[in-house]
Amino acid sequence: MDLLLNSAPLATKLRNTLIQYHSIGDNEWRVTKKAKDATVWRKPSEEFSGYLYKAQGVVEGVTNRIVDHIRPGPYRLDWDSLMTTMDIMETFDENCCVIRYTTAGQLWNFIAPREFVDFSYTTSYEDGLLTCGISLDYGEVRPNFVRGFNHPCGWFCVPLKDYPSHSLLTGYIQTELRGMLPQSAVDTAMSSTLASFYSDLKKALKT
């Protein structure tokens, strides 16, 4: 299966886009949720008519172990309650692949299960790592799923200077769920899902 003849330009563009998001000033973000484990902000997306979300929290653990739990691989399905299946469709190198995954219904199944096909890339960033992705329009949609689309998304994980056993995890998510959904329902789901992501990840890292 030859999805992408050359993954390098897409990986570089994706990394640069995420670094650009990471440099957006605090005054451009509006807080949408403050939870015990993370704070979530949002601003209008420049990619589509929805929002770019930013989530941030401190997670106990070294950078490599945290990112191994987030990026495509054996850990993610074990702890992420939103993700129901994940298949790696093509691997370009150990840090670059194409995955197809499905998500569970949300808001008492008001938001039906979704399917995504994403290009995923993990690379170094400062003293830590960046793992990022973007959806591809590829292949047939599985029955009983709506095909969603992730505009450039990613997670920066950098060790805290004074507490190297802890890391600052900052995520940027802009998911177009598609289908006939009121934007308010999508916004409610996104903020809650991102906050839960941190609490579920922390539990997984303690096991």
UniProtKB/TrEMBL annotation:
SMART domains: START. Residues 10-207 form the START domain. The gene is Stard4. GO terms for biological process: cholesterol import; cholesterol transport involved in cholesterol storage; intracellular cholesterol transport. This is STAR4 protein. InterPro entries: StarD4, START-like_dom_sf, START_lipid-bd_dom. Signal peptide: none annotated. GO terms for molecular function: cholesterol binding; cholesterol transfer activity. One of its GO terms (cellular component) is endoplasmic reticulum.
